[in-house]
UniProtKB/TrEMBL annotation:
Residues 1-155 form the Sulfotransferase domain. This is Sulfotransferase. It holds the Pfam family Sulfotransfer_1. It comes from Colius striatus. It is an enzyme of class 2 (transferase).
């Protein structure tokens, strides 16, 4: 099982924009309205913190590889190499580079109309890290920091997310 996770502040930011771009999902007039819903478990697929907490139970299992979105952004070739090794797939350096390039956000966004039609613009917005800094208030930062600590702080999965690096203002 390959478990891909992302820091919760960027998840919230991305999902806010996704919800407002997808008519079947509830839309939010303001970021503040969305943040309240996100933090009070009123999201269409439940609480991201509970999701992380549940997966943390399996993070040490030998048949589970956890990788973060941020890791893949930091070093895409190493990420592809680690994933290939986990699944027992042998790739040359040239193949690793090719997979990393073709699976980059930039490449997927460029091809999104071909691969996902009009939905591609909704799925591939920015693809960055730390966009949350454009939306979160100081109070919202504190609330999310506290909730993260309560659910996965100090756990294997919590450590893997490098919260101190990606989620501290």
């Amino acid at each position: 099982i390959l478990l891909l996770v992302r820091n919760p502040k960027d998840v919230a930011t991305s999902f806010y924009h996704f919800c407002n771009a997808m008519s079947p999902l509830p839309s939010y007039e303001t970021w503040d309205d969305f943040f309240i819903a996100f933090m009070t478990k009123k999201m269409p697929w439940g609480s991201y913190f509970e999701y992380l907490s549940e997966w943390n139970k399996y993070a040490a299992d030998e048949n589970v590889m956890t990788i973060t979105y941020e890791e893949l952004k930091e070093n895409p070739v190493l990420g592809v190499e680690n994933i290939a090794a986990f699944f027992g797939i042998s790739l040359t350096d040239e193949e690793l580079q090719s997979v990393a390039e073709r699976s980059s956000f930039k490449s997927m966004k460029k091809n999104s109309q071909k691969t996902h039609g009009a939905f591609g613009n909704v799925l591939f917005r920015k693809g960055g890290v730390n966009d949350w800094k454009n939306l979160f208030s100081e109070d919202q930062n504190e609330k999310m920091d506290k909730t993260f600590e309560e659910h996965v702080g100090g756990t294997k999965l919590g450590t893997k997310l490098k919260y101190e690096v990606y989620c501290k203002a």
